[in-house]
Amino acid sequence: MRNPWGELTGVKPVKLTRELFKGNPYNGRKPHEKPEVFRILTEEKGLSVEKARLLIEIYEYQQRVLEGERYTSCGLYIGIPFCPTRCLYCSFTSNQKPYEEVERYLQALIKEIEFTGKRAKDTGLDVETIYIGGGTPTTLDEGQLERLLDAILHNFDLCKLREFTLEAGRPDTITAGKLETASAHGVDRISINPQSMKDRTLELIGRSHKPSDILKAFETADKSGIPVVNCDLIAGLPEEDADDFRKTLETIISLRPANITVHTLALKRASRLIEQDSNYHETHSDVVSEMIELSHEILRSEGYLPYYLYRLKRMAGALENTGWCKPGTAGIYNIRIMDEQQSILALGAGGMSKVFFPQENRLERVPNVNNYEVYIDRLQEMFDRKEQGIFQMMPEIYKQTEALKRR
Ligand code: SF4
Questions:
Q1: Looking at CB atoms within 10 Å, which of 98, 187, 262, 347 has the fewest?
Q2: Based on the domain organization, do 129 and 91 belong to the same domain?
Q3: Could you report the per-residue pLDDT of 128-160, keeping only the tens digit for each?
């Protein structure tokens, strides 16, 4: 089967589309009108007509959503690297640990929040979006979640905040108390990630919840009043056919989430599934293509719009992940992170902060260590890395922002 993405190997094709429209003096790209962008994507890059149209549609939608100062504001990412069990396809930092360990981590994380919040205020770095991810942040119990949210609210200046997301990924970790606490602290987006609504699949991939838990989680979310719920689904899970995927999608749509993200199963070397079947992503490519086509057809007919897209290596069918939203509910953090024109402050084990130098169109990475125990032990070093790599760079970033405005 012909690869619909042609020769494009990059993981951020919408960013490339933006550069084709707007130009990029740093790599010699000139700005183009829409017909020429379409021609470059299809003729030079070899994309199918459908994928080229999809990229242009997403780019145009993003232009309508993004506003405000992106260079002197940031996205704030806070990582909770714990989950109740480990999924079969997982290659993230996910630890299964007792309460005492989670507590030890939380105490260190709150110290990092205090340090970073103070330095962000001192240097005038505004927070535009917050994303608490993982792992599964709702592995924290109600009291711990409240302390985490209190720490964020007390230490950062949030007067320019546009959105606040909490990944409540695993339905078996969601309680009414946690979502009420989240809502009371200003969280306006959560993610409930069913992946599939088929019992057997959930068992196979090592999730400890049932489809009925997902329905309950939706009821709880409804009552909490949090306005935007995102649902992550995966196309290409073991033993699933297109009909299973259709049933999952239709059930999820009937629950009326504002956002649905359709992932194509990506298998990294660290996942258990790739150890069991090293050719999985190739043997499943046809069925996954069928599922992705179905998702476009059904989601469009239900009023969802594609608003962000990215690709990973070793994805089944060499396809893509697409975020869909009801009009007016696009996730700004998701768009910014793929667009790579804004700094990110990433806190916690595995956090990868990025500093964007606008005049040079360059991102510099400032990593925290991955292992949560090492993170706790070397916390001061994480502060020092942020101080040197981010906060001491702020005068230069302001200078470059001003220089760009004067152009
Ligand atoms: S919920 Fe996500 S981070 Fe946790 S084990 Fe599953 S795939 Fe990994």
A1: 98
A2: yes
A3: 999 999 899 999 999 999 999 999 999 999 999
